[in-house]
Amino acid sequence: MNPFKIAYIPHSQELLDISFHKTSKLNLKVNPKFSAKKKARLKELKRINHVAQHIKNKIIKIVKSFPTFEKLHPFYYELTNILVNVKNVKKLLGSLSGTNNVIETILNKTVSRIRSYENPKDIAQERIKFYGRISSIIYKMKNNLEELRNIRKILIKLPSVSFDIPTIVVAGYPNVGKSSLVKIISSATPKIDYYPFTTKSINIGYTKFNNIRFQILDTPGLLDRELLKRNKIELQAIIALKYLAKKIAFIIDPSESCGYPITNQINLYREICKLFPEIPIFLIFNKMDLISKERLEIIKKNEIFNENIFFIIAVQGEGIPKLLEELFDNNN
Q1: Please, what is the average pLDDT of the chain?
Q2: At what angle do helices 142-155 and 86-116 cross, to 10 degrees?
Q3: What's the pLDDT tens digit per position in 53-106?
Q4: How many angstroms separate the CA atoms of 169 and 98, rounded?
Q5: Most buried residue, 27, 29, 138, 164, by CB count within 10 Å?
Q6: How many CB atoms neighbour CB 90 within 10 A?
């Protein structure tokens, strides 16, 4: 399951507006027998304490709603680090927590001053000054809050991965038909289009075969290049392969209608085999309706494949039953 159940993060102005509005609705009744000075003091102390406590509680709720990153499954930790930079998130949360200390200091000083004043007007003025100081502190957090809001939007949308069922990760170059295959063999409904990197994140589907439930992952397209040169979209696929794959379904488009030479696609396939030697990899040629038999023979002659190749037309479902028998066979 997605471990990021992060509390709603308001804008700085929104946080202040809610806090001041709730405080304005407070019941400020005091004993009518008290002096004007004591009445004013009690009312203003109640107001400033309520504002401070509401803001502090909201900040605590936000910070505590983020998980302890070191306790995350490595898949989620690395995925988070790629997408939002864990170190930066910790820094932002630490700064937010530190704001509570500043608020507490301002509150204590204001309480002390209010208790020292005799004139109700001075007491009321001190509460107004307190509101101003608190507003200034929260406004200084504007950019940090906005950044955390954006981080939250990313993290709460991460896929809910199950780590206790067999997982098949579908990989390959962009636009080779990964999403089409996943859509056919699972419950996933990935976006399918005809341009590179349509899949910008990991999509998950599920299926049953011989009463065994499988998790199917549609990953963003990879390119044949060094790991350090891969972008955030590609690195998501690498992480899924590294931590989740019990088997890998690697798709190649021999027709090259995907926009990439088959030599590059095969190079990537060889690289994946080297990176994950202990994971069974199924080599799949897709879009067989777009390539001639003569061209296919040339490819097979130029590239020596020791592996069995599955030939399919994913969008038509052709060749899929045979592939599934092998892919979902626990003995493979």
Answers
A1: 89
A2: 140
A3: 999 999 999 999 999 999 999 999 999 999 999 999 999 999 999 999 999 999
A4: 42
A5: 138
A6: 12
Q: Residue 288 carries which side chain, given as an amino acid letter?
A: M
- Within 25-141, residue ranges assigned H as helices are 36-65, 74-84, 86-116, 120-140
> Where exactly does CATH 3.40.50.300 map onto the chain?
167-327
**Residue 276 zone, left/alpha/beta (φ > 0; ψ -120 to 50; rest):** beta
The CATH code of the domain at 167-327 is 3.40.50.300
In this predicted model, what pLDDT tens digit does every residue of 6-22 receive, in sequence order? Answer: 999 999 999 999 999 99
Phi–psi pair at 132, nearest 5 degrees: -65, -45
Q: Which range has highest mean pLDDT (43-47, 190-194, 327-331)?
A: 43-47
Give the model confidence (pLDDT) of 167-195 as tens digits. Answer: 999 999 989 998 889 888 887 554 433 33
Say how far apart CA 98 and CA 102 lie, in whole Å. 7
123: amino acid identity, one letter? I
pLDDT tens for 240-268 read 899 999 999 999 999 999 999 999 999 99
Separation CA 239–CA 218 (nearest Å): 12
Q: Would you tell me which CATH number, out of the four given (1.20.120.1190, 1.20.1200.10, 2.60.120.20, 3.40.640.10), belongs to the domain 12-155? A: 1.20.120.1190
**Distance, CA of 223 to CA of 234 (rounded, Å):** 8
Q: Residues near 31 by Cβ (< 8 Å), separated by ≥ 6?
A: none
Round to whole Å and give the CA distance between 87 and 308: 44
Q: Tokens 């200084």 sit at which residue? A: 140
Average pLDDT over residues 307-323: 91
A 10 A CB-CB count for 81 gives 17
DSSP letters for 240-284: HHHHT-SEEEEEE-TT-TTSS-HHHHHHHHHHHHHH-TTS-EEEE
pTM of the complete model: 0.85
